[in-house]
Queue: 2 jobs
Job 1
Amino acid sequence: MHQQTLALHAGYEKDTQGTMAVPIYMSTAYEFRDSEHAANLFALKELGNIYTRLMNPTSAVFEKRFAELEGGVAAIATASGMSAIFSTIVNLCEVGDNILVANAVYGGTSTLTDHTIKRFGIETRKFDVANPSNLEELIDEDTKMILFESLSNPNLQVADFKTIVDIANKHNIITVVDNTVATPILCNPIKLGCDIVVHSTSKYTTGQGLALGGIIVDSATSGEKIKGNDRYSHFNEPDDSYHGLVYSDLPFPPFIMRILLSVLRDLGAAPSPFNSWLMIQGLETLTLRMKEHSASALKVAQYLESNEKVKKVNYPGLESDSNYTRAQQYLIGGNSGLLSFEVDSLETAKTIVDNIEIFSCVVNIGDSKSIITHPASTTHQQLSAQELEQSGIGAGLIRLSIGLENADDLIEALKKVL
Ligand code: PLP
């Protein structure tokens, strides 16, 4: 079935009332038939609802629908994109391990991987996502995952999927792709050979800047990499915190089962059922919106490229962009709504941000309303000068998230301020 159809129907069977819209099940807990039923659910002899920190019928529809859109086997929704990324790292790593992280990632992912997880004894090693020539040298027996963004925020690098996946497969290491900016409509990391896909659903999925959320999608290949692999011994040995359960022996995907039974249980970063319901509303129009965001962003990028006050435009849909060839190879039907451009100085960047019409100065992306951001002073403020340079974020860089307004009006607003 096409994604446009799946986004409206997958994962939902109408309840006894025949409700067309997926109901919002606002309930913390679920009644067991009797004590034996309760014991069976806890022992995984039967599957069913226990408590909303672990599962919820509204969130379950969102999870099933999203898993189908990504071509995965299962998904777990989380409270935010950052909790999806942190849960994934915690699921794979422990003290003494290392992870390989792309040089160009969202600022929050940078601070998490460069600083916070260091305090958990996990080391981050960096590689160039567009030219991963040093990737294989960074791998050792303690390497647990390779993390990168399909289309990076904010400097729009398109990942060199083939090189990264080939190296990961050679060493039996799990790849984790943040597909937030591209969405499953424009990029399918699982089809490209990746194992786990994470998202901040706070962006294009909700689509109108309505709610925070995240999701982790599992593929069949992660289980194959985990089973019997010493690198992932904690999936292959008994878990003392779950009466000796061996995740790789379960008849379900081990990666996502451990997220559910151990990570969500202990960290508790579960989504509100209401937020999951908002995400379901967003998915219904995702296919149409991503086409429109992409078409308008291309028009705006072409205009900016023609303006002499603009030093450089980063948009993979432009033939002049160094990512163009990879975008043609790995993105389908558009390049998303995010673009960035450089002006001569911090002062000029500030003047543009402070005076532009229609665009709102907001630290978000993927809203139906257009957004302008100055990454060096906001989303990436906590990065050092060296880290900013490594991530390609200069003082004169401005990020635009192109919304669903008429592109000509957006171009007019930019023309005025430039
Ligand atoms: N990943 C990417 C690519 C992002 O752009 C963001 C937020 O901007 C996140 C993850 C974090 O998501 P959240 O804000 O939902 O925690």
Job 2
Amino acid sequence: MKIICTRDEASFDSTMSEILISQITSKKDGVIGLSTGRTTGNLHKITARVFVEKGFEVGETTFFALDEVTGIDRENPWACYTKLKNEMLDALGVDDDHFLAFPTKSDDFEGECKKLTSEIEKRGGADLIILGLGENGHLGFNQPGSDFEGGACVSTMDDDLQRRIKEDCGLPESAVLGGVTLGIKDIMSAKKLILAVKGSSKAAILKKVMYGPVTNDVPASILQTHPDCTVVVDKAAAGE
Ligand code: GLP
């Protein structure tokens, strides 16, 4: 694993945006996976701003959402589909043919998982996936205990994220939210991975991810075995 340590949050966000823009412009029909959350929101917004102010070639790049919240409407601002469109993809003029995402609701998630993974394959496979890290070591919605050989699937959501979504959307405490996600195997088959980690709340888990044993108790620890994985951190996340 390579590591890029940035001095603060602002430099983390701009470094991440430079990495993304350089990937977009390096291949005109590239395939790029994106994650949503507190870590990646700014990098998407900065990328959109650079596009509007200076412009760069987006070409025929396909973007995909690594995962999706299930049980809410797709137009809900917490849906990864809507978040990614609002934060960046609409500003870049990316149409629905070039943006692959799981649905938030379906009677056949198994079929939807197959559809998304085979569409990514058809387009040549992921050149880059930008990953966020859960405080419990999750990748996408691959929670602790997930099979390293597992493909896309419906999974559970950690309590903290459920609580934030329910509070924000005014959903009852009893509501059960879940997630659908590319599997660890799909993530590991990307040519290049960037694990983006910022903030002191991630310092302890990041130490385990990078220097602890490779174990599915800490799903992101599998990244130690990827041939081209770079961890980008701010000083706070690098604390331990
Ligand atoms: C969420 C999402 C992930 C995201 C991660 C980190 O649960 N399922 O795709 O990368 O957790 O989120 P945050 O950046 O808000 O900490």
